[in-house]
Amino acid sequence: MVRTPLTPSERERGRFLGVLLRQARGERSMADVAAGAGISAETLRKIETGRAPTPAFFTIAALATTLGLRLDDIAARCAAVTVPEEVPRDEAA
């Protein structure tokens, strides 16, 4: 199965999700939060840095529970993220 490449908007939403989760984690260690969510610290690291921009729903649900976040708030905030349209090179000059 070939995966369709992510759009710039999807990548930006993933980056924003990572920032949101990192802020919610605060001073807690990555290992503690990951263990609480039942995922590896490396998976959490990838999500927080945007290298895993489309994590599984149940991963986000587990992280939300561990971090005391509401899924509807996460979804609404991530859905509001937009990427300015790129200007084609020939029009930028």
Structural commentary:
The chain has 93 residues and is mainly α. Helices cover 63% and strands 0% of the residues. Helix 1 (8-25) packs across helix 3 (41-49), helix 2 (30-37) packs across helix 3 and helix 2 (30-37) packs across helix 4 (57-67). The longest helix is centred in the N-terminal third of the chain and has 18 residues, at 8-25. GO terms for molecular function: DNA binding. Residues 21-74 form the HTH cro/C1-type domain.
CATH fold node name: 434 Repressor (Amino-terminal Domain)
Per CATH, the superfamily is lambda repressor-like DNA-binding domains
Spell out the helices and strands N to C.
HHHHHH
Biggest sheet character:
none
Which class do the helix and strand fractions yield? mainly alpha
CATH C-level category: Mainly Alpha
Give a quick summary of the entry.
This protein is an all-alpha fold.
Give structural attributes.
93 residues; mainly alpha; 434 Repressor (Amino-terminal Domain); 6 helices; globular
How is the topology of this model organized?
Layout lengths: L7 H18 L4 H8 L3 H9 L7 H11 L3 H9 L9 H4 L1
